[in-house]
UniProtKB/TrEMBL annotation:
This is PAS domain S-box-containing protein. It comes from Halanaerobium saccharolyticum. Pfam families: PAS_4 (PF08448), PAS_9 (PF13426). Gene3D superfamilies: PAS domain, PPM-type phosphatase domain. Residues 15-61 form the PAS domain. The lineage of its organism: Bacteria, Bacillati, Bacillota, Clostridia, Halanaerobiales. It comes from the Bacteria. Residues 124-158 form a coiled coil. PROSITE patterns: PAC (PS50113), PAS (PS50112). Residues 88-140, 228-280 form the PAC domain. Keywords: Coiled coil.
Length: 345
């Protein structure tokens, strides 16, 4: 019995020694306090991280590390949790002896003795300042990206052209406000109200070119190697025909890999309508010229009928006759020659 007890005592002392070494060499700070919160032990990592020596903190309250960045309710909740025998976990923004702030991920556990009373508290804390710095940088980059995206969206929405991005699965990933407006009109006119309220985003079911869904589809042409496409298309919107010049270019990532296509739609309906009006006006002018030319031709033939078929012979007078009808004038000019007996016109 004594041998067994001796062996048990030796193993217990060995385990305690190992435990002490583990705590002393831990890469995380370890702080042990009494039930009132006075510090009874700190490991070397605590000294290294905070800049306080053991002698400076023994008997002190851990509040010497307070940075003033946490609300009073934060500490009240912590104390209520551990004093009730429960484990508390959370993050501290603490203050080193030098005044430098640092973040710690902490776990504080109450130690219960054989009588069921709290004999001490053990806090194990990990320096997470670098992680927090990385999180801040990521948040800043995220904010910057969101700001750039908002700026891009604002710029796109200012454009009078409708713009959309379609991926390789024929899905509309992004579009500007002008495209959304045209797409609403297109769906109501061409696909009906039920489809308008559906969530489908396939490009063939939206405002697109006449070739969409065919072998001449823009995306298929880009996949086949084309780098630039420009074509005209006519679409019925709000019960009227509208005309657009559509420009299509490939969209690639920073490594040059094809990700989809970007399409822009420039509304040329006003220009097309003006061209039609101009064409009708030109046709009317051409018709008028044709009618006038026909009338002039009638006049020329009529004038020729007034000319003598045979010229008179006059002694001692040689003359030649030249006939040139007036060129689109409202009258004729004549030269008169008095021969004494008659007038030659």
């Amino acid at each position: 019995m004594e041998k067994k007890l001796g062996k048990f005592s030796f193993e217990t002392e060995l385990d305690s020694s190992r435990l002490i070494q583990a705590v002393e060499q831990s890469p995380e700070t370890v702080v042990i306090t009494d039930p009132e919160g006075c510090i009874e032990y700190v490991n070397p990592r605590f000294v290294e991280l905070t800049g306080y020596s053991r002698e400076e903190v023994l008997g002190e309250n851990p509040r010497i590390l307070k940075s003033g960045c946490h609300q009073k309710e934060f500490y009240q909740n912590l104390w209520q949790t551990i004093s009730s025998g429960q484990k508390w976990s959370g993050e501290f923004l603490n203050l080193k002896k030098s005044g430098e702030k640092f973040w710690e991920q902490a776990s504080i556990t109450p130690i219960i003795d054989r009588q069921g009373e709290i004999s001490s508290y053990v806090a194990v804390k990990k320096d997470i300042s670098q992680r927090k710095q990385m999180e801040r940088e990521l948040l800043e980059k995220k904010d910057q990206l969101e700001e750039k995206e908002k700026m891009l969206n604002d710029i796109l929405d200012l454009s009078t052209e409708a713009i959309r991005y379609v991926d390789l699965n024929y899905q509309i990933i992004k579009s500007n406000q002008r495209y959304k407006e045209l797409n609403r009109l297109y769906k109501k006119d061409n696909l009906g109200e039920d489809f308008f309220f559906s969530q489908r985003r396939n490009c063939s079911n939206a405002f697109c070119t006449e070739n969409c869904g065919t072998e001449n589809c823009s995306l298929k042409q880009i996949l086949a190697g084309r780098e630039f496409i420009q074509e005209d298309t006519a679409v019925k919107l709000a019960g009227e025909n509208h005309y657009f010049i559509v420009t299509i270019v490939p969209y690639r990532d920073h490594q040059g890999k094809l990700k989809g296509i970007i399409q822009s739609y420039r509304d040329i309906t006003a220009r097309k309508n003006y061209e039609k009006t101009l064409e009708l006006s030109n046709q009317k002018i051409n018709d008028l010229y044709s009618r006038l030319e026909a009338e002039f031709e009638k006049g020329r033939r009529l004038h020729q009928q007034f000319l003598p078929k045979k010229l008179p012979q006059i002694a001692k007078l040689d003359y030649q006759v030249y006939f040139q009808p007036a060129n689109k004038l409202g009258g004729d000019f004549y030269n008169l020659i008095d021969t004494g007996k008659e007038l030659l016109i």
